[in-house]
């Protein structure tokens, strides 16, 4: 019998985890710089948490959720994204209120039943932030600045910020009508999905990736021309703050987000590093979501970054070689007694905080040296019969091939910087 990972999922193997850890550490550090604190919510939620917030008409809710009944018949869903969970948790724990400014971040796996392709998995990983309690345009700009900072610190290049305003409950209906009027005459030329979107939410047509739909989308009316006075003022202040913070951006009036809850500011960070246009993160305001999920009216904004894309880009740029998997010390031994002493030194090294290892496969000295090299050990300490007598042995620096005699008692002092 042979087992395989489920379609659309991947094992992240030990050779790759250092890269993932680097990315996760950089996320935590960067979010921390901007005073975001971590929140961890369950991997699954009651299905309603997602259907109501993300929107019944979205692709996610219609075809991509992993929904299942538990043993008591309750409908549960593996989280397809984290914002709804964060809102649920924030409301349940009374952290999201009109006068509390809450800044939180999350990291972890999300689940969507999609056709797997390069950089797109059914279990994928996101890092994201959410800020609740302010409609201040400076917060929008700070969040965009944060997302750019994050990708710069990760080592991504050729980044571009696309921003748009998708308006609010008050000005969106007129824009929807304008879109309907425009697309009505071209309906027969649009793809099946877009014809459905036309009925449910014409805004979403702007998000279609089909080449023949794009032709018509380019000519469609723009939201910026339909913003009401408040939304227009908010957008121009966001742009003003971005200028002030020296964040470069491009206004992209076709940009909408794939979820129903977005209002006003929508943004994406695109990396052109691998030739293609890769959106590495997307986000925006969702000023009505908290109220729609049963809370008071609390404005909010957030973004999520897809980590698989980042891994792909950094791997292609062979960033990986810089993050090697190294141990500090390998103790090579010849004979049982040497192994016992070696184990004693091994224990001491670990107690001192030096990562260290020894052979467990009865290998020859030569094979032990080879194993130490493969592990990327910084030093190898070689103990045989003579060394036992003298309580001293050769310490080999694997980087420089330099060797020197070091007594058992002095061994660990070599590692003190
Ligand atoms: Zn508006
Ligand atoms: Zn289409």
From TrEMBL:
Similarity annotation: Belongs to the class-II aminoacyl-tRNA synthetase family.
Intracellular or extracellular location(s): Cytoplasm
EC number, UniProt record: 6.1.1.21
Annotated protein name in UniProt: Histidine--tRNA ligase
GO cellular component entries: cytoplasm
Listed InterPro entries: aa-tRNA-synth_II (IPR006195), aa-tRNA-synth_II/BPL/LPL (IPR045864), Anticodon-bd (IPR004154), Anticodon-bd_dom_sf (IPR036621), His-tRNA-ligase (IPR015807), HisRS-like_core (IPR041715), HisRS/HisZ (IPR004516), HisRS_anticodon (IPR033656)
Keywords per UniProt: Aminoacyl-tRNA synthetase, ATP-binding, Cytoplasm, Ligase, Nucleotide-binding, Protein biosynthesis
Example GO molecular function: ATP binding
GO BP, one annotated term: histidyl-tRNA aminoacylation
Residues the record lists as binding L-histidine: 81-83, 112, 126, 130, 257, 261-262
UniProt catalytic activity: tRNA(His) + L-histidine + ATP = L-histidyl-tRNA(His) + AMP + diphosphate + H(+)
Enzyme class: ligase
Quaternary structure annotation from Swiss-Prot or TrEMBL: Homodimer.
Keyword DNA damage belongs to the record: no
Domain Aminoacyl-transfer RNA synthetases class-II family profile: from-to ranges: 19-314
Source species of the chain: candidate division WOR-1 bacterium RIFCSPHIGHO2_01_FULL_53_15
Record-linked HAMAP family: His_tRNA_synth
